[in-house]
Design a protein that fits this description.
about 0% helix, Jelly Rolls, mainly beta, globular, 11 strands
Length: about 120
């Protein structure tokens, strides 16, 4: 049985600059075709714009507030918002609030640095 507690999962930085805690993926569990991670962005921080040629993502905001841009369209996001990011869509996330922006990231196939194409320098 694979059970991971967020408080016990080490953080790493993704290619786009997010601080990630990978809860379940092929690297640490029996899960093979998707991954679940928590991402955090400090107040005033943002990810670098990027896209994933193969991977579709779902972001689920759990704390804080922000703004997301997907293929040129922007909107504000807050706790309870679920965001669909299809493969190939450029996206960027900003923390526009005064507390850490926290979100769950579901990726299928699982997140890999090699499937991240940076758009910003």
């Amino acid at each position: 049985m694979d059970v991971r507690n967020l408080a016990e999962v080490p953080a790493f930085t993704t290619k786009d600059g997010s601080e990630i805690r990978e809860l379940l993926a092929h690297r640490n569990s029996v899960i093979r075709r998707q991954s679940l991670a928590e991402a955090r962005l400090a107040p005033g921080a943002s990810t670098q714009e990027h896209y994933h040629p193969r991977t579709e993502e779902i972001y689920y905001i759990t704390a804080g507030q922000g703004r997301i841009r997907i293929d040129g369209e922007e909107r504000e996001v807050r706790p309870g918002d679920a965001i669909a990011i299809p493969p190939g869509c450029r996206h960027k996330l900003w923390n526009t609030g005064s507390e850490t922006l926290r979100l769950l990231c579901c990726c299928a196939p699982p997140y890999e640095h090699e499937d991240t194409v940076m758009v910003e320098p």
